[in-house]
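Need tokens for this chain, all 284 residues.
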Amino acid sequence: MGEPTVRTRQLGSELARHRDAAGLKINDVAERLGWPASKLSRIEKGRLGIKPGDLDALMDECQISDPAKRDVLHRIARHGRQLGWWQTYRDIISPAYADLISLEDSATSLRTYQATLIPGLLQTAAYARATLDALSMTATQAEVNALADVRMARQSVLSRPEPLELWAVIHEAALHPRVKSHPKLMKEQLQWLLDKQDLPHVSIQVLPLDAPPHVGMGGSFALLSFPETADLDVVYLENLTNALYVEEPAEVRRYGSAFERLRAAALPFDESADLIERLKDTIK
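Here are the structure tokens for all 284 residues:
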């Protein structure tokens, strides 16, 4: 199976938690099920997927009887086995990035704070290529174009029948023109933000340059929420060379509180749109 995904880790963690709560050891449960203990250990570590029948048997042994809880764990298990369109790009995207795309595909909402860039789900193709070219450094033009295609394909979550609810707080610094040789690039990007803000499931606020010290100075982040339970929300953090997922519920809640503070410090929606419009009009 390779490296565990966020969802397989969550499934394994939940199963292990219930097994511990029932006072059972891995060897005891594995023996009752007729499994090698290593199989159950790998499932709990998120390194092995699990079939529906095996999951039912394991939940029975771990005394998980609540139908709603069992349904949640089945949905998470199905997600862990899911193959999506992004698999065709596995040669150019990292496992962590593929995991993000998969999570976006199953999430109900995404709250993000971006300090220096327009959020990926709100980028134009031209802006995506320009920023990817700068950030990738060693990528060929063909690879940059392919990565831009991936970024554009990700945006389908905003147009699906039950679209992702996106709330973005963007620092004003990210909205100023960056590519002097292609001024229209940023003008088109700002207009794209204004267009997207008209969608009922997209909310965009701008954190102004003159905002007092704020929690966003710690860096950008994205918080993904799912239909099952808030305890399974995750935070995505990205830097130049890799990405990190925050999954511990207490830490995830801190990021949720941080987003609420940023939302409160940012300009209201109408004022944010007015600022984006003014910045767009300064570009000739």
